[in-house]
């Protein structure tokens, strides 16, 4: 399910499936995109920050068009202890690989991969990004 911002409308709460993963998409060319994500983060339950929140930064192939500094993205990662994935959605191969990666992360977050928890996988992702 896709939402443009949080909070989600409450009138459909009874129809909404369980939420296993939240991916915030940030377009590196749009300060509005970052602001929307920052505003939406206030509506996320603290328990989700234990491995079930990721930031997906798009548009990284066009460095000359960036409106958002990488420091702002790093600050989000550190503040919310959540991994950041960078991708260029205009390239089909990267788009497919990113979708496959997110699906695998979702399977882990939903508890469908034996031996992995959302928190342990998130920590593994964070540690590999720090190297």
UniProtKB/TrEMBL annotation:
Subcellular location: Chromosome, Centromere; Nucleus
Keywords tagged on the record: Centromere, Chromosome, Nucleus
Name of one Pfam family that matches: CENP-M
Protein origin, superkingdom: Eukaryota
GO cellular component: chromosome, centromeric region; nucleus
Main localization, broad class: nucleus
Keyword Nucleus: yes
Lineage of origin: Eukaryota, Metazoa, Chordata, Craniata, Vertebrata
Protein name: Centromere protein M
InterPro entries assigned to the protein according to its UniProt record, in alphabetical order: Centromere_Cenp-M (IPR020987), P-loop_NTPase (IPR027417)
